[in-house]
Amino acid sequence: MSTQKPRPPGRRPNSRPFPSGAQGRTPPRDGDRGHRPPPPPPDTVYLWGTHAVVEALGSLRRKALRISATEAAVERIAELAADRGVPVSIVPGDAISARLPRDAVHQGLLLEARRLEPIALDALPDDGVVLVLDQITDPHNVGAILRTAAAFGVSALVLQDRHAPDLSGTLAKAASGGLEHVPVALVVNLARTLDKLGERGFFRVGLDSAGDGSLEAMDLPRPLALVLGSEGDGLRRLTRERCDAVARLDMPGPIKSLNVSIACAVALTVARLKAPAQ
Protein backbone atom coordinates (compact mmCIF):
# COMPACT_ATOMS: atom_id res chain seq x y z
CA MET A 1 0.00 0.00 0.00
CA SER A 2 1.44 3.35 -1.04
CA THR A 3 2.16 5.95 1.66
CA GLN A 4 2.51 8.85 -0.82
CA LYS A 5 0.10 11.68 -0.04
CA PRO A 6 -2.24 12.67 -2.85
CA ARG A 7 -1.32 15.92 -4.66
CA PRO A 8 -3.77 18.77 -4.84
CA PRO A 9 -5.45 18.90 -8.27
CA GLY A 10 -3.61 20.87 -10.92
CA ARG A 11 -0.21 20.95 -9.15
CA ARG A 12 2.91 19.16 -10.42
CA PRO A 13 5.37 17.48 -8.09
CA ASN A 14 7.87 19.96 -6.60
CA SER A 15 6.22 22.86 -8.41
CA ARG A 16 5.86 26.32 -6.91
CA PRO A 17 3.21 28.87 -7.80
CA PHE A 18 4.28 32.02 -9.60
CA PRO A 19 4.79 34.96 -7.25
CA SER A 20 2.05 37.55 -7.20
CA GLY A 21 1.86 39.43 -10.52
CA ALA A 22 4.14 36.98 -12.34
CA GLN A 23 1.50 34.70 -13.89
CA GLY A 24 2.28 33.88 -17.48
CA ARG A 25 5.87 35.11 -17.38
CA THR A 26 8.76 32.76 -17.90
CA PRO A 27 11.00 32.70 -14.81
CA PRO A 28 14.54 33.91 -15.57
CA ARG A 29 17.11 31.29 -16.45
CA ASP A 30 19.85 30.75 -13.90
CA GLY A 31 22.39 32.13 -16.36
CA ASP A 32 20.45 35.41 -16.67
CA ARG A 33 20.44 36.25 -12.98
CA GLY A 34 22.86 38.98 -12.04
CA HIS A 35 24.54 39.15 -15.45
CA ARG A 36 27.40 41.62 -15.05
CA PRO A 37 29.67 41.80 -18.08
CA PRO A 38 33.30 42.63 -17.41
CA PRO A 39 34.15 46.29 -18.08
CA PRO A 40 36.23 47.16 -21.13
CA PRO A 41 39.95 47.79 -20.61
CA PRO A 42 40.94 51.29 -19.43
CA ASP A 43 40.60 54.06 -22.03
CA THR A 44 38.58 51.69 -24.23
CA VAL A 45 34.94 51.57 -25.27
CA TYR A 46 32.87 48.79 -26.77
CA LEU A 47 30.86 49.38 -29.93
CA TRP A 48 28.56 46.69 -31.26
CA GLY A 49 26.13 46.11 -34.09
CA THR A 50 26.75 46.33 -37.82
CA HIS A 51 26.09 50.02 -38.44
CA ALA A 52 27.97 51.24 -35.37
CA VAL A 53 31.03 49.10 -36.11
CA VAL A 54 31.13 49.78 -39.86
CA GLU A 55 30.83 53.56 -39.41
CA ALA A 56 33.47 53.54 -36.67
CA LEU A 57 35.88 51.66 -38.93
CA GLY A 58 35.28 54.22 -41.65
CA SER A 59 35.85 57.21 -39.37
CA LEU A 60 39.27 58.80 -39.25
CA ARG A 61 38.32 60.37 -35.90
CA ARG A 62 38.04 56.94 -34.26
CA LYS A 63 41.03 54.82 -33.22
CA ALA A 64 39.92 51.20 -33.68
CA LEU A 65 41.85 48.59 -31.70
CA ARG A 66 40.45 45.12 -32.34
CA ILE A 67 37.31 43.33 -33.48
CA SER A 68 35.57 40.17 -32.34
CA ALA A 69 33.27 38.74 -35.00
CA THR A 70 31.29 35.62 -35.65
CA GLU A 71 31.91 33.63 -38.82
CA ALA A 72 28.58 34.82 -40.20
CA ALA A 73 29.37 38.49 -39.57
CA VAL A 74 33.06 38.79 -40.39
CA GLU A 75 32.52 39.37 -44.12
CA ARG A 76 30.67 42.62 -43.34
CA ILE A 77 33.80 44.24 -41.92
CA ALA A 78 36.73 42.20 -43.28
CA GLU A 79 37.72 44.69 -46.01
CA LEU A 80 37.33 47.76 -43.78
CA ALA A 81 39.29 46.12 -40.97
CA ALA A 82 42.09 45.17 -43.34
CA ASP A 83 42.25 48.72 -44.74
CA ARG A 84 42.54 50.14 -41.21
CA GLY A 85 44.94 47.43 -40.02
CA VAL A 86 42.55 46.32 -37.26
CA PRO A 87 42.99 42.69 -36.10
CA VAL A 88 39.91 40.48 -36.22
CA SER A 89 39.22 37.43 -34.04
CA ILE A 90 36.58 34.88 -35.06
CA VAL A 91 34.57 33.89 -31.98
CA PRO A 92 31.19 32.32 -31.18
CA GLY A 93 28.29 34.70 -30.69
CA ASP A 94 27.98 33.63 -27.05
CA ALA A 95 31.51 34.86 -26.39
CA ILE A 96 30.50 38.33 -27.60
CA SER A 97 27.26 38.29 -25.63
CA ALA A 98 29.15 37.45 -22.44
CA ARG A 99 31.08 40.73 -22.70
CA LEU A 100 28.01 42.93 -23.24
CA PRO A 101 24.81 43.91 -21.42
CA ARG A 102 22.21 41.18 -21.50
CA ASP A 103 19.92 42.96 -23.97
CA ALA A 104 22.68 44.00 -26.41
CA VAL A 105 21.87 43.08 -30.03
CA HIS A 106 25.40 42.80 -31.34
CA GLN A 107 24.71 41.14 -34.74
CA GLY A 108 27.95 39.21 -34.38
CA LEU A 109 30.25 42.24 -34.16
CA LEU A 110 32.11 43.86 -31.26
CA LEU A 111 34.70 46.59 -31.74
CA GLU A 112 37.12 47.76 -29.07
CA ALA A 113 38.11 51.35 -29.74
CA ARG A 114 39.28 54.60 -28.15
CA ARG A 115 36.78 57.24 -27.13
CA LEU A 116 36.10 60.11 -29.47
CA GLU A 117 37.46 63.38 -28.16
CA PRO A 118 34.75 65.99 -27.51
CA ILE A 119 35.07 69.24 -29.41
CA ALA A 120 35.51 72.67 -27.84
CA LEU A 121 32.60 75.07 -27.97
CA ASP A 122 34.78 77.52 -29.90
CA ALA A 123 35.08 74.95 -32.68
CA LEU A 124 31.37 75.14 -33.56
CA PRO A 125 30.81 76.59 -37.02
CA ASP A 126 29.09 79.96 -37.33
CA ASP A 127 26.71 79.03 -40.11
CA GLY A 128 25.09 75.74 -39.13
CA VAL A 129 22.62 74.12 -36.76
CA VAL A 130 23.53 72.71 -33.35
CA LEU A 131 21.39 70.70 -30.97
CA VAL A 132 21.55 71.47 -27.24
CA LEU A 133 20.19 68.75 -24.94
CA ASP A 134 18.97 69.81 -21.51
CA GLN A 135 19.33 66.77 -19.22
CA ILE A 136 18.29 64.16 -21.76
CA THR A 137 20.06 61.17 -20.28
CA ASP A 138 18.49 58.07 -21.83
CA PRO A 139 21.10 56.55 -24.19
CA HIS A 140 18.42 55.27 -26.58
CA ASN A 141 16.95 58.76 -26.98
CA VAL A 142 20.34 60.46 -27.32
CA GLY A 143 21.44 57.79 -29.78
CA ALA A 144 18.29 58.28 -31.87
CA ILE A 145 18.87 62.06 -31.80
CA LEU A 146 22.45 61.53 -33.01
CA ARG A 147 21.23 59.34 -35.85
CA THR A 148 18.75 62.03 -36.92
CA ALA A 149 21.37 64.76 -36.48
CA ALA A 150 23.74 62.91 -38.81
CA ALA A 151 21.00 62.53 -41.41
CA PHE A 152 20.28 66.28 -41.34
CA GLY A 153 23.91 67.37 -41.33
CA VAL A 154 23.78 68.95 -37.87
CA SER A 155 27.06 70.65 -36.97
CA ALA A 156 27.31 69.40 -33.37
CA LEU A 157 25.52 68.11 -30.31
CA VAL A 158 25.96 69.97 -27.02
CA LEU A 159 25.59 68.02 -23.77
CA GLN A 160 26.13 68.88 -20.13
CA ASP A 161 28.93 66.55 -19.09
CA ARG A 162 27.48 65.44 -15.75
CA HIS A 163 24.12 64.62 -17.32
CA ALA A 164 25.40 62.96 -20.49
CA PRO A 165 25.02 59.22 -21.09
CA ASP A 166 28.13 57.25 -21.93
CA LEU A 167 29.07 57.93 -25.55
CA SER A 168 29.52 54.29 -26.52
CA GLY A 169 27.73 50.96 -26.29
CA THR A 170 23.95 51.26 -26.16
CA LEU A 171 23.99 54.88 -27.33
CA ALA A 172 26.27 54.10 -30.29
CA LYS A 173 24.05 51.16 -31.29
CA ALA A 174 20.94 53.38 -31.19
CA ALA A 175 22.78 56.03 -33.21
CA SER A 176 23.50 53.50 -36.00
CA GLY A 177 26.80 55.19 -36.83
CA GLY A 178 25.65 58.75 -36.16
CA LEU A 179 28.08 59.09 -33.28
CA GLU A 180 30.96 59.00 -35.78
CA HIS A 181 29.55 61.87 -37.85
CA VAL A 182 28.24 64.42 -35.34
CA PRO A 183 30.85 66.05 -33.08
CA VAL A 184 29.86 66.30 -29.42
CA ALA A 185 30.69 69.22 -27.14
CA LEU A 186 30.59 68.45 -23.41
CA VAL A 187 30.05 71.55 -21.26
CA VAL A 188 29.96 72.20 -17.53
CA ASN A 189 27.15 74.76 -17.35
CA LEU A 190 24.39 74.73 -19.95
CA ALA A 191 23.04 78.20 -19.13
CA ARG A 192 26.47 79.81 -19.57
CA THR A 193 26.95 77.82 -22.76
CA LEU A 194 23.72 79.24 -24.18
CA ASP A 195 24.95 82.73 -23.20
CA LYS A 196 28.13 82.11 -25.19
CA LEU A 197 26.18 80.82 -28.17
CA GLY A 198 24.05 83.96 -28.06
CA GLU A 199 27.16 86.14 -28.01
CA ARG A 200 28.35 84.34 -31.14
CA GLY A 201 25.12 85.13 -32.93
CA PHE A 202 23.25 81.83 -32.57
CA PHE A 203 19.46 82.17 -32.61
CA ARG A 204 18.46 79.96 -29.67
CA VAL A 205 15.08 78.23 -29.91
CA GLY A 206 13.77 76.08 -27.07
CA LEU A 207 11.24 73.39 -27.95
CA ASP A 208 8.29 72.98 -25.62
CA SER A 209 4.75 71.73 -26.21
CA ALA A 210 3.53 74.82 -24.33
CA GLY A 211 5.72 77.22 -26.30
CA ASP A 212 4.54 80.74 -27.07
CA GLY A 213 4.54 80.31 -30.84
CA SER A 214 4.67 77.69 -33.55
CA LEU A 215 8.11 76.71 -34.84
CA GLU A 216 6.70 76.68 -38.37
CA ALA A 217 5.72 80.35 -38.06
CA MET A 218 9.17 81.52 -36.93
CA ASP A 219 12.10 82.78 -38.92
CA LEU A 220 14.98 80.39 -38.26
CA PRO A 221 18.20 82.19 -39.19
CA ARG A 222 21.66 80.67 -39.10
CA PRO A 223 23.52 79.92 -36.97
CA LEU A 224 20.70 78.16 -35.12
CA ALA A 225 20.67 76.34 -31.78
CA LEU A 226 17.69 74.06 -31.16
CA VAL A 227 17.33 73.33 -27.45
CA LEU A 228 15.51 70.17 -26.36
CA GLY A 229 14.48 69.32 -22.81
CA SER A 230 13.92 65.98 -21.12
CA GLU A 231 10.60 64.23 -21.65
CA GLY A 232 9.76 64.35 -17.97
CA ASP A 233 10.69 67.90 -16.97
CA GLY A 234 11.11 69.71 -20.27
CA LEU A 235 13.34 72.77 -20.37
CA ARG A 236 14.69 73.95 -17.03
CA ARG A 237 14.00 77.55 -16.02
CA LEU A 238 17.54 78.85 -16.58
CA THR A 239 17.70 77.10 -19.94
CA ARG A 240 14.36 78.56 -21.03
CA GLU A 241 15.41 82.06 -19.97
CA ARG A 242 18.50 81.88 -22.23
CA CYS A 243 16.45 81.07 -25.33
CA ASP A 244 15.55 83.80 -27.79
CA ALA A 245 12.25 82.03 -28.41
CA VAL A 246 10.36 79.03 -27.03
CA ALA A 247 8.40 77.27 -29.75
CA ARG A 248 5.94 74.44 -29.96
CA LEU A 249 5.35 71.90 -32.69
CA ASP A 250 1.73 72.27 -33.77
CA MET A 251 0.47 68.74 -34.34
CA PRO A 252 -2.89 68.22 -36.11
CA GLY A 253 -3.85 65.07 -34.21
CA PRO A 254 -5.26 64.61 -30.70
CA ILE A 255 -1.83 63.87 -29.16
CA LYS A 256 0.26 67.03 -28.98
CA SER A 257 3.49 65.75 -27.45
CA LEU A 258 6.10 63.52 -29.05
CA ASN A 259 9.02 61.42 -27.94
CA VAL A 260 11.99 63.77 -27.76
CA SER A 261 13.89 62.05 -30.58
CA ILE A 262 10.84 62.25 -32.85
CA ALA A 263 10.30 65.89 -31.89
CA CYS A 264 13.92 66.53 -32.82
CA ALA A 265 13.39 65.04 -36.28
CA VAL A 266 10.27 67.15 -36.85
CA ALA A 267 12.04 70.32 -35.67
CA LEU A 268 15.03 69.67 -37.95
CA THR A 269 12.67 69.12 -40.87
CA VAL A 270 11.02 72.49 -40.19
CA ALA A 271 14.41 74.17 -39.76
CA ARG A 272 15.63 72.72 -43.06
CA LEU A 273 12.52 73.87 -44.94
CA LYS A 274 12.86 77.36 -43.46
CA ALA A 275 16.61 77.69 -43.96
CA PRO A 276 17.57 81.14 -45.29
CA ALA A 277 18.30 81.26 -49.01
CA GLN A 278 22.00 81.03 -49.79
UniProtKB/TrEMBL annotation:
The keyword Methyltransferase applies. One of its GO terms (biological process) is methylation. The keyword Methyltransferase applies. GO terms for cellular component: cytosol. Residues 1-43 are annotated as: Disordered. It comes from Lichenibacterium minor. PANTHER family: 23S RRNA (GUANOSINE-2'-O-)-METHYLTRANSFERASE RLMB. One of its GO terms (molecular function) is RNA binding. Residues 15-26 have a biased composition (Low complexity). Keywords: Methyltransferase, Transferase. NCBIfam families: rRNA_methyl_3 (TIGR00186). CDD domains: SpoU-like_RlmB. This is 23S rRNA (Guanosine(2251)-2'-O)-methyltransferase RlmB. Coiled coil: none annotated. Pfam families: SpoU_methylase, SpoU_sub_bind. Residues 46-119 form the RNA 2-O ribose methyltransferase substrate binding domain. It comes from the Bacteria.
